[in-house]
Amino acid sequence: MTVSDLMTQRHELRPRSHAGAAWRAAVAIVSRDVLVTRREIASLLVQTLAQPLFFLFIFGKVLSSVGTTSPRFSVVLLPGIVAFTVFLAPLQALSIDLGRDLSFTREIDDRLLAPLPVTLVALEKVVLAAARGLLAGGFVFPLAYWVLGSSYQVRTDEIGVLIGMMALTSILGAAIGLVMGTIFPITHLSLIFSIVITPLIFTGCLYYPWGSLGVIRWFQVLTLFNPLTYASEGMRSAMVPVQNGAPESLAMAWVVLVLCTSLVLSLGSGLKFFRGRVLS
């Protein structure tokens, strides 16, 4: 074997060994985070399901029982609650986790020292946060069945669309959480949540179908600038049983297009801010 052959093999082995080390580091980090999540599963579910529980009980059960709302309101409300849960749970979890790590605990430094690209460190956090959002969203369905009783109605012929919408919404929430966690310090996050999250919730068509806002045209147009509107309408299209005279809904093509565009912009910005923050 000649010297040139040895040099060629050496250059071929380097990328493989580096890729193998990166893969082992990624598996170790994911395994550790999954283990931590399993140990904290009870507190995680309590934190993420407390708000959906009270929303379903008050707006879906109490108000319909006393005649303030129609029994059908709970059918329209449930998709909004699912969208709200799978969007907000990863957003808050990742932004608070990153804000804490980048501010005073500096636990992120251990991950950055691993033989792993910086981008993959951020993506691992996004994927894990999205998985938490999906888990929380999945628990909303038995919770709603228990609270709403006979008013619980969910179509079962669009399960694939529903799962896809939940996954897309949870990843979008995690991507926005990545942006917020890298831009704002942990001491300002509670204020940012009040300024950003509250308008998102009340203009995101959680409690009403988008088509019913035709009587308030300016507000209907305003809700189109909120990505949560498209998540709620996508969930509603996949969950609400088809009935005659249903309010106009956003086309699924527009829902997917806007959510995917928002995801690309949020994730791209978040990765850029994350790299700038940890490499500075």
Provide keyphrases for this structure.
globular; mainly alpha; disordered N terminus
Describe this structure as you would to a colleague.
This protein has 10 helices and no strands. It is an all-alpha fold and about 280 residues long. Helix 5 (about 120-150) crosses helix 10 (about 250-280), helix 6 (about 160-185) runs parallel beside helix 10 (about 250-280) and helix 9 (about 225-240) crosses helix 10 (about 250-280). The chain is globular and about 60 Å long. The N and C termini lie far apart (about 45 Å). The model is unreliable at about 5-15 (pLDDT under 50).
Kindly estimate the percentage of residues that lie in beta strands according to DSSP: under 5%
| Number of strand segments | 0
Q: Roughly how many Å is the radius of gyration?
A: 22 Å
The count of helical stretches stands at 10
Q: What is the mean predicted local confidence, pLDDT?
A: 81
Low-confidence spans: 3-16
User: Per the principal axes of the C-alpha atoms, what is the gross shape?
Assistant: globular
Structural class: mainly alpha
Instruction: Please describe the biggest sheet, giving its number of strands, its sense, and whether it closes into a barrel.
Output: none
Oligomer: single chain
Distance between the termini: 46 Å
Helix content: over 70%
Helix and strand run: HHHHHHHHHH
